[in-house]
Amino acid sequence: MKKIYKKKYKSEKKKKKHNYLHNNILLYVLKTKKKIHKIFIHIQIIYLINSKYMLLYTCDRNNEKINKERK
Q1: First and final CA of the chain: distance in angstroms?
Q2: C-alpha angle 32/38/42, rounded to 5°?
Q3: What percent of the chain is predicted at pLDDT more than 70?
Q4: Reduced to 3 states, what is the DSSP secondary structure of residue 71?
Q5: Helix (H, G, I), strand (E, B) or coil at 3
Q6: pTM score > 0.85 for this model?
Q7: Apex 19 CA angle, 2 and 14, nearest 5
């Protein structure tokens, strides 16, 4: 009886430890995911702004070319 109880107790302890570690890892992953997500959104916004400016710039260049050709 005593031995069986000890074995069970040990396995329970291991399970608890494993769950604790698992939860910690999950939390860490979730936290980093949020950070990565924020960074990703930030990069996307920067990219959008840059692409807009590039479009504007190319449009201006094209307009200049067209105007030169007309003259």
Answers
A1: 103
A2: 145
A3: 20
A4: coil
A5: helix
A6: no
A7: 25
